[in-house]
Design goal:
Elements (H helix, E strand, L loop, with lengths): L4 H4 E3 L3 E13 L5 E10 L3 H21 L13 E2 H4 L9 E8 L4 E8 L6 E5 L11 E13 L2 E15 L10 H5 L18
Parallel strand pairs: 5-9, 6-9
Antiparallel strand pairs: 1-8, 2-3, 2-8, 3-5, 4-5, 6-7, 8-9
InterPro entries: Enc34_ssDNA-bd, NA-bd_OB-fold
Protein name: DUF2815 family protein
């Protein structure tokens, strides 16, 4: 059975981004420049996980048809268990995760309310590269597909679009400026006359 992109396309629930290389492409293991992110799905988001499982099952059936009725050995599936694979990383606790990438830059936006005439959500493009980062929460559009490259076979995820829905703690050791200095006292009188700064 042929499977079209609509069948294999998914918009997640609220997920967290990790290793978010969404503004500038990074070179992957094959030497290709790609935009990418790891997508952390809470284990209690049953709906997103159900949709992923349904798509993976469809693609497995397509793979079986392609490879004489059975899946190849070491057939890669995208969804991984954060508790098992990243036991020392607090951000991955009680989450599943998968990686998504694309040669094309993803659309990056935020919701700005409803269009009164259609009732549909309106979006504003995000251009500030500090707004979407490893640790923020988003809904992500991805497309799953079969791959067969250099002897590796399986299912991968293509990164389409990202809609930021909430800030979160930075992942990867970066701290927030506001958090770092929230309890510090600054004498604002010292900064009122910028002209005298160098005098």
């Amino acid at each position: 059975m042929a499977i079209d992109n609509q069948t294999t396309k998914l918009v997640t629930g609220k997920v967290r981004l990790s290793y978010a290389n969404v503004w500038e492409p990074q070179e992957n293991d094959s030497g290709d420049l790609k935009y990418s992110t790891s997508i952390l799905i809470p284990k209690d988001d049953k709906e997103t996980l159900r949709k992923i499982k349904a798509i993976v099952d469809l693609l497995k059936e397509q793979a079986k048809a392609k490879y004489n009725g059975k899946l190849p050995a070491k057939f890669h599936t995208p969804l991984r268990d954060g508790d098992e694979e990243r036991p020392d990383d607090e951000a991955y606790a009680n989450h599943y995760f998968f990686n998504a990438s694309s040669k094309n830059k993803p659309g990056i936006a935020k919701p700005i309310g409803k269009d009164p005439s259609t009732g549909k959500t309106k979006f504003a493009e995000i251009t500030d590269t500090t707004e979407v980062y490893s640790g923020c929460y988003s809904k992500v559009s991805v497309n799953f597909y079969l791959f067969d490259t250099k002897g590796n076979k399986g299912i991968a995820a293509g990164l389409n679009n990202i809609v930021k829905v909430q800030d979160g703690d930075f992942l990867g050791g970066r701290s927030s400026l506001n958090d770092d200095f929230a309890d510090e006292d600054f004498d604002t009188d010292d900064f009122e006359d910028d002209d005298d700064f160098m005098n």
